[in-house]
Recover the amino acids of this structure.
């Protein structure tokens, strides 16, 4: 075996799961969700129903599928070899998520440093926008006016929250490694709570933006990038929180030991990734 | 669903497999999944081909005969999306599923259930792409996406429900490809037989390793781009609207950051396959294994940084133009290495020309035309003339059909006996080859001249001076299309029966995949082989 | 007049492009022939059927072999960055230098699916659209010589002058392309792009929109007539007079019959492609006007002001996010009044009211 991936030569069997209908139904659910959303956006009446059906199928299948994986794991089907595959999978999955966020960061960079200056910098004799000047935040030459979101209120609190959640999660991990289950459980529950509070603050911030600042999705490129970046981030925090809650539940049920706890680590990686994205967001969206 | 009550190691034999349709819906076996990918690909190849035959029929003569321009626009874009995402990419993934575990001595793919999901995402996506055509027949919506496959804003912001369908089709296709890529990377990094170091790994696996990384890096960016498009369409954002400070060109950056690497995503698996075929039929070792590996890596890296050459007439600043021109041209260097290695592999061999070898040679020559014209396109000054003309259409069909599809056909003929245990008909295979190359050139060679003379692409009707070449091209395309029925027939015959294939199939093969029986047992390498030296 | 290569260039940029293209074609043809001659030689000599014995080498060994490996690499480096790279560098600098010593400006605006041209220096402007009759396209009449490459109003430019061309668009991206100029540049909504031409010979030069811009993308040609300076001056004077007459038209009071007659002509030219000659439209993308709620709604508010989302508002200001454009940007007051009056009274709409060009002028 190649030396970079530590595990010794594998002599045993690799666990190939039994045939399963979950993937097929998961795809079917995604199809319905997409179809329903399309119908909904184009104002066809059945839209919401189709969406709900799709979401229901997806939720059910995910619940069962993850359940099956947990059962296989508890039964001891997985050895270090399979574990290695899961780790690889999770790392590359997070890699793809990084690139997804990169697209939106790139859009922010582009609008701020390329398109807005270009719109403001046309040959004065022929410019299409007489009194538009370079500024950031900007809603563009014909955008509505709005108040940008400051960095040092809620966003700063949220930064602190997420950073502490990273700490509590690591603390929980130590607990797991050292066999201190109480520390593990407490750390996880605290992390989940911090995640929930973060989301609560974000919801409040959005409300404030819409009702008082005039800062909406439609507020030019600033509004667009602001809501898409923070929105997708918030969505990831929500997913991460759910995953943490599941892991917390499993810890309470006595799953995992100091050596084998891939699910815990995967969620932790994911959470740290979400954390890092937030730091970037805080700097480039709110602060600078 | 999971009715299993037994086996801790999961290596049940055939007995535990559901039969009939359920086998295919539920399978976690890499060969079954590979077969599904390949069958789906063939089906969609005909669907995408049928669409463009209608287009070619409309272009047979000047004037509008068969369809409205709106419908024409829908056909070309969906043709491209179907061919690229539902025919060519799944074919390569099918190869990967079948062959990578066999080649590296693995029992299966690393993540078998995920593997099944990767496949079963494709049919819903294909339905989303084509459903709007059907809905329009019932008066719902105005048909499929009519923006070309590039979905440029703001045309796509203005478009109808078909754009939304395309956006979600792309999301789902993207998830499928990312899942497939994750699986392939995990398999390659984690499942190789003891002793098979990365530098000893077969080139086909290398081609796919780079492909998979490219997919993971670029597809999410496309997903982000079409998501912005969706919010611009329905949720009031202004990413691509100057009034709000956005820019239509931003979409082009996001699209082509994916779109250019995509062309290497389509061809790297084929470039990985070629040395195997050439070495087999030259009865000689692959030339320059290490050099080719590094070329793949170089192509992958360079491929990520040259996207701007697709919109050089959009008014990029001069430094950007020059940068994109020189970086694009530099991709010819690793490709020259590949061409050199291919020819050096043949050099002083003992060649024979069975169908796979014919296709390989056809591939090299015709892809040479694609690559060399690509090099010319990269020249910013001259590109002002070529851009969005039929010259480009010809260039990329030499790359996509002669490079991609003919590359896939090379692989199919090469491995079919291994997969089915039977030999296909060599006579039909050769007939298929000659009909394909001749009619392919008849279809697309005239398009180079049309482009030079000034015919823009994506037009349903054209000026009179373009008539003769268009007529020739249309005739060629129908012969080309019909010839592909031979291909399908030959495959079908081979599945049904025919002369038994030996384990090695061809005289000059070597590698783990040829040590297993033909067809290989349901579970490939239950105990991993050990590679010595 | 078909050529196997670029059509004859008539600008410095066009000549540059052609010569670069020709050189490049020679280079790649040579490469192609040499590379595949070697391969073909091998395929003939090293066949099993002629008794060839396979060699066993799998990579370069020894200095000589490395030399042969590096030769193609070096050749390509030379081609990419010297032989083709240097002329391309100069050509790009030249192409992008739109402002130095520019004699005049032409502003081009792309619209679905026609071109609007303005001459800021002389204050004239007009819209140029395909003039090939529908019958020819649909095969009910013989196709003329310049099928699809002819327009109602040609752009006229003086020979020998450097014309700086500014491009923009009001709806989607269009691309202004005239092959014989070697010029192709995108017109991007909300932005300004630039290019330039110096036409060296009088003549009529034809091109097309080169970016997919919706259903009639194939039907928006560019026709430029290059004429000697005096003729150009005369043409400008004539255009100015024409525009003055049109302006006068908006001040006079029109009879309903006059409006209907002018309206039918203008409708067929500007609206029928989407809403169809009989106003039946192509739903859902292009709504029907016959019996339309909007068309048969009230004309103006009692105070004579524009009602939001009314018929007049739609025609003047378009509908954002659709192919319905703001026609006040391209049509004269008289045309707008005529079209509105016509739409309200044709196709069985029979509203019986009308609107005067002077009213439109006031609404602008
Ligand atoms: C699989 C598909 C594929 C491949 C492999 C390529 C390969 C290349 N392409 Fe192509 N291209 C497309 C698919 C592909 N392309 C598509 C689909 C489009 C249009 C998209 C759209 O607009 O819809 C396009 C468009 C396109 C453009 C934009 C044109 C325009 O719209 O104006 C450009 C410009 O630079 C370009 C360049 C190149 C280059 C430089 C390569 C290089 O990779 C080629 C490198 C290869 C060589 C240079 C040949 C190798 C050399 C030899 C034969 C060796 C001989 C030499 C010696 C030994 C000395 N391509
Ligand atoms: C892998 C990619 C791929 C492949 C394989 C092909 C294959 C073909 N393409 Fe495609 N094409 C593209 C990718 C591809 N194309 C892309 C990316 C575009 C750009 C789109 C855009 O502008 O946005 C394009 C655009 C394009 C155009 C330009 C349209 C325009 O600009 O107006 C044309 C015109 O001739 C064309 C022709 C063909 C032909 C004749 C084939 C032939 O090779 C097809 C061979 C035919 C068949 C395989 C048909 C077999 C079917 C039958 C025999 C009928 C039986 C039917 C059933 C059983 C259902 N293509
Ligand atoms: Cu305007 Cu195409
Ligand atoms: Cu490219």
């Amino acid at each position: 075996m190649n030396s970079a991936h530590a595990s010794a030569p594998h002599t045993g069997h690799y666990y190939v799961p039994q045939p399963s209908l979950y993937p097929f139904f998961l795809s079917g659910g995604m199809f319905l969700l997409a179809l329903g959303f399309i119908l909904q956006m184009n104002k066809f009446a059945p839209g919401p129903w189709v969406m709900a059906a799709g979401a229901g199928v997806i939720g059910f299948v995910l619940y069962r599928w993850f359940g099956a994986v947990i059962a296989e794991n508890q039964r001891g089907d997985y050895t270090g070899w399979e574990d290695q595959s899961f780790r690889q999978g999770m790392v590359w999955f997070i890699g793809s998520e990084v690139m997804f966020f990169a697209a939106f960061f790139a859009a922010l960079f582009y609008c701020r440093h390329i398109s807005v200056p270009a719109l403001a910098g046309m040959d004065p004799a022929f410019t299409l926008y007489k009194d538009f000047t370079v500024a950031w935040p900007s809603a563009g030459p014909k955008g509505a006016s709005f108040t940008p979101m400051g960095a040092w209120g809620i966003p700063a609190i949220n930064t602190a929250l997420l950073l502490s959640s990273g700490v509590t999660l690591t603390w929980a991990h130590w607990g797991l490694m050292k066999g201190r289950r109480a520390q593990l459980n407490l750390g996880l529950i605290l992390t989940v709570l911090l995640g929930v509070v973060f989301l609560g603050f974000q919801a409040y911030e959005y409300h404030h933006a819409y009702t008082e600042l005039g800062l909406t999705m439609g507020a030019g490129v600033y509004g667009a990038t602001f809501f898409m970046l923070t929105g997708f981030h918030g969505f990831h925090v929500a997913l991460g929180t759910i995953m943490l809650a599941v892991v917390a539940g499993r810890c309470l049920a006595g799953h995992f030991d100091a050596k084998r706890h891939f699910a815990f680590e995967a969620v932790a990686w994911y959470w740290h990734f979400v954390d890092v994205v937030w730091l970037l967001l805080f700097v480039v969206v709110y602060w600078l | 669903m999971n009715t299993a009550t037994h086996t801790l190691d999961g290596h049940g034999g055939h007995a535990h497999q559901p039969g009939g349709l359920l086998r295919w819906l539920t399978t976690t076996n890499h060969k079954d999944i590979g077969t599904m990918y390949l069958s789906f690909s063939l089906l969609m190849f005909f669907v995408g081909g049928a669409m463009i035959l209608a287009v070619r029929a409309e272009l047979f003569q000047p004037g509008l005969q068969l369809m409205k321009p709106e419908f024409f626009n829908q056909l070309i874009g969906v043709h491209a999306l179907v061919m690229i995402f539902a025919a060519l990419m799944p074919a390569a993934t099918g190869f990967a599923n079948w062959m990578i575990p066999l080649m590296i001595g693995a029992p299966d793919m690393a993540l078998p259930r995920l593997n099944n999901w990767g496949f079963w995402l494709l049919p819903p996506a294909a339905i989303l792409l084509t459903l709007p055509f059907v809905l329009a027949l019932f008066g719902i919506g105005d048909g499929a996406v009519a923006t070309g496959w590039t979905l440029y804003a703001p045309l796509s912001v203005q478009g109808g429900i078909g754009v939304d369908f395309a956006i979600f089709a792309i999301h789902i296709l993207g998830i499928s490809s990312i899942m497939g890529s994750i699986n392939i990377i995990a398999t390659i990094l984690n499942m190789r037989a003891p002793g098979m170091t990365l530098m000893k790994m077969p080139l086909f696996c290398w081609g796919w390793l780079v492909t998979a990384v490219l997919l993971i890096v670029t597809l999410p960016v496309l997903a982000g781009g079409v998501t912005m498009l969706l919010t611009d369409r329905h949720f009031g954002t202004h990413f691509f609207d100057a009034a709000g400070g956005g820019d239509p060109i931003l979409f082009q950056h996001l699209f082509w950051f994916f779109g250019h690497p995509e062309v290497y995503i389509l061809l790297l698996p084929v470039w990985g396959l070629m040395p195997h075929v050439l070495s087999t039929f030259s009865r000689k070792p692959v030339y320059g294994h290490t050099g080719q590996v590094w070329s793949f890596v170089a192509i992958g890296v360079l491929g990520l940084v040259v996207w701007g050459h697709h919109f050089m007439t959009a008014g990029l600043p001069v430094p950007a133009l020059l940068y994109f021109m020189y970086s694009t041209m530099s991709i010819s260097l690793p490709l020259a290495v590949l061409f050199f290695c291919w020819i050096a592999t043949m050099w002083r061999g003992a060649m024979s020309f069975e169908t796979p070898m014919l296709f390989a040679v056809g591939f090299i020559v015709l892809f040479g035309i694609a690559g060399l014209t690509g090099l010319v396109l990269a020249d910013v000054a001259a590109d002002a003339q070529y851009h969005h003309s039929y010259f480009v259409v010809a260039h990329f069909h030499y790359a996509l059909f002669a490079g991609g599809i003919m590359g896939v056909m090379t692989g199919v003929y090469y491995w079919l006996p291994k997969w089915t245990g039977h030999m296909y008909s060599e006579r039909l295979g050769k007939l298929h080859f000659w009909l394909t190359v001749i009619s392919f050139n008849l279809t697309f060679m005239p398009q180079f001249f049309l482009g030079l003379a000034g015919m823009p692409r994506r037009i349903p009707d054209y000026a009179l001076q373009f008539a003769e070449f268009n007529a020739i091209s249309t005739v060629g395309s129908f012969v080309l299309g019909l010839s592909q029925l031979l291909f399908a027939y030959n495959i079908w015959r081979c599945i049904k029966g025919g002369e038994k294939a030996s384990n090695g199939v061809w005289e000059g093969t070597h590698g783990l995949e040829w040590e297993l029986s033909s067809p290989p047992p349901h579970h490939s390498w239950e105990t991993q082989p050990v590679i010595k030296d | 007049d078909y050529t196997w290569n670029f059509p004859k260039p008539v600008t410095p940029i066009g000549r540059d492009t052609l010569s670069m293209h020709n050189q490049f074609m020679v280079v790649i043809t040579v490469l192609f022939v040499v590379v595949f001659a070697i391969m073909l030689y091998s395929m003939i000599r090293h066949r099993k059927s002629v008794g060839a014995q396979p060699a066993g080498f799998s990579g370069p060994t020894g200095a000589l072999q490395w030399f042969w490996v590096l030769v193609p690499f070096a050749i390509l480096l030379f081609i990419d960055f010297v032989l083709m790279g240097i002329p391309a560098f100069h050509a790009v600098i030249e192409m992008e230098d739109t402002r130095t010593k520019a004699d005049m400006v032409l502003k081009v605006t792309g619209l679905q699916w026609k071109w609007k041209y303005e001459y800021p220096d002389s204050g004239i402007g007009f819209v140029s659209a395909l003039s090939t009759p529908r019958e020819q396209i649909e095969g009910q009449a013989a196709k003329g010589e310049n099928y699809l490459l002819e327009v109602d109003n040609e752009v006229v430019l003086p020979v020998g002058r450097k014309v700086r061309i500014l491009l923009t668009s009001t709806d989607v991206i269009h691309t202004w392309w005239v092959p014989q100029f070697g010029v192709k540049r995108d017109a991007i909504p909300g932005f300004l792009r630039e290019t330039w031409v110096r036409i060296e010979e009088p003549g009529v030069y034809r091109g097309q929109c080169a970016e997919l811009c919706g259903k009639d993308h194939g039907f928006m040609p560019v026709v430029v007539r290059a004429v000697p300076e005096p003729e150009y001056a005369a043409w400008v004077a004539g255009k100015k007079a024409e525009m003055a007459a049109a302006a006068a038209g908006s001040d006079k009071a029109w009879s309903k019959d006059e409006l209907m007659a002018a309206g039918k002509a203008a409708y067929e030219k500007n609206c029928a492609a989407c809403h169809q000659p009989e106003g039946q439209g192509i739903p859902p993308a292009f709504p029907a006007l016959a019996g339309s709620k909007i068309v048969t709604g009230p004309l103006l508010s009692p105070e004579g002001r524009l009602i939001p989302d009314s018929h007049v508002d739609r025609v003047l200001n378009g509908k954002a996010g659709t192919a319905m454009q703001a026609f006040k940007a391209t049509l004269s007051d008289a045309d707008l009044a005529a079209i509105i009056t016509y739409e309200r009274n044709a196709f069985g709409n029979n509203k019986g009211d009308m609107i005067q060009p002077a009213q439109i002028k006031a609404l602008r």
Chain A has two domains: 1-78, 79-287. The longest helix of chain A spans residues 80-120. Residues 122 and 128 of chain A are 8 Å apart (CA to CA). Residues 1-8 of chain A have pLDDT under 50 and may be disordered.
